[in-house]
Amino acid sequence: MTIAVNPHILVWAREIAGFGLDEAAAKLTLSTSAKSTAADKLAALESGEKAPTRNQLNDMAKVYRRPLLTFYMAEPPRKAARGHDFRQSPDARTRRENAMLDTLLRDVQVRQELVRELLEDEDEAASLPFVGSIAMRQGVKHAVGALSAILNFNPLALRKGPSETLFKRLREAAEDAGIFVLVLGDLGSHHYSIPASVFRGFTIADPVAPFVIINSKDARAARVFTLVHELVHILLGQGGVSGTVSMGAPKTEDARIERFCNDVAGEFLLPNGAYRRGVAPFEANDLEGARFAVEQIATRWSVSEPMVAYRLNREGDLSAGAYETLRSEFYTRWQANLKREREREGGGPNQRIVKQFSLGNALVSLVHRTVRSNTLSHTKAASVLGAKPHAVEPMLRHFENNHGTFVSGAS
């Protein structure tokens, strides 16, 4: 028995799963005959020339890792509006990577709209005055001052602990100011992980319910820079997707905005005239001296070593060649550490802790409050939290038992 479905759904599901036609046909165990190859048979299904059977749809759901109901939709999920695409080379990503990013963006946009509706229903929908409150022409120093006031944070103050501690502190301050900060990097499964090379962060600069998303697949030490960078986008009132740092001269308005956000984040986290105090001087091409200085500064200021190297290069204290060498070294080391972590997987924090860390205190607290007051159903709560309805109540009880205290290094 064949099922009438939109063939475009079949193409979309295969592409977002990352399979070419031949590979997908093999995984679906379509047979090759004298008249047509397995790939030809799949192409016929995807073109609408033939309709799939119920068993074939079940196989596609398993192989492509999509819910069976997906294949009965009238149209493929619409492409999410990315806002500004601040990435310097968005077309360098594969079609699958950008498709996964669009799916994540669409999911977050739905959550953000639900959160805004919740705030409006609870009469808490006041516009936040800092969203869109600054302009690039006012300069880096002005932006740093504005952000410092919003977060009640003195960039010159003594810091203690690793970068994860600073991230937790700034995240809590941002949430206290009314910004929802989530740490997400997949579509609900490690099979659909979105690497940091695709995006580092993105923002929805809504004046009532602004959202900042940090890629959980990026190095933990890098998150604090990304957070501050994305908060600057909120202050500029320009939501969009950000990528890895580019050292090339900005040639477009979006590139100039991205460079500005990087410079503000650099000045906020490593104040000029302060962060190099007590550090032995070194020549711009002195790799050994630079390595020692970078490590010392990163430890003292609770930031990542790549961020320190970037700042030194932007200030002209580290040559482009030395910076690229160090950046390559840091990346190689991070990849090695990541590999070791994966090999040790199995003894980390439970998934409920990881989930709540990913969502943030502000979002879970809002859902908890509105569910308990019968304003929000468990079904809608599941949509906001990105969870199954049956998982909502255990998550809320865990939140109650822990008073909203999350493990900062959970993910």
List descriptors.
5-stranded mixed sheet, 434 Repressor (Amino-terminal Domain), 52% helix, disordered C terminus, 16 helices, mainly alpha, 411 residues, 4 domains
Task: Tell the overall outline.
Answer: globular
Radius of gyration: 23 Å
Low-confidence stretches: 404-409
- Compressed to H and E, one letter per element, the order equals HHHHEHHHEEEHEHHHHHHHH
Largest sheet: 5 strands, mixed
- The computed structural class is mainly alpha
Number of helices: 16
What is the number of strand segments?
A: 5
Helix content: 40-55%
Number of domains: 4
Kindly estimate the percentage of residues that lie in beta strands according to DSSP: under 5%
How is the largest sheet built, in terms of strand order? 1-5-3-4-2
Distance between the termini: 45 Å
Averaging pLDDT over every residue, what do you get?
90
Description:
There is one protein chain. It is built from 16 helices and five strands. The chain starts with 6 loop residues before the first helix and ends in a 10-residue tail after the last helix. Strands 1-5-3-4-2 form a five-stranded mixed β-sheet. The radius of gyration is 23 Å and the shape is globular. A hairpin with a 6-residue loop joins strand 3 and strand 4. The protein folds into four domains: 66 residues, 434 Repressor (Amino-terminal Domain), CATH 1.10.260; 186 residues, no CATH class; 76 residues, no CATH class; 51 residues. It is mainly alpha-helical and 411 residues long.
Describe the protein's topology.
Layout: H1 7-17, H2 21-27, H3 38-47, H4 54-64, E1 84-85, H5 95-121, H6 140-151, H7 163-176, E2 180-184, E3 201-204, E4 211-215, H8 223-236, E5 240-242, H9 253-269, H10 287-301, H11 305-314, H12 320-343, H13 351-359, H14 361-372, H15 378-385, H16 389-401
Parallel strand pairs: 1-5, 2-4
Antiparallel strand pairs: 3-4, 3-5
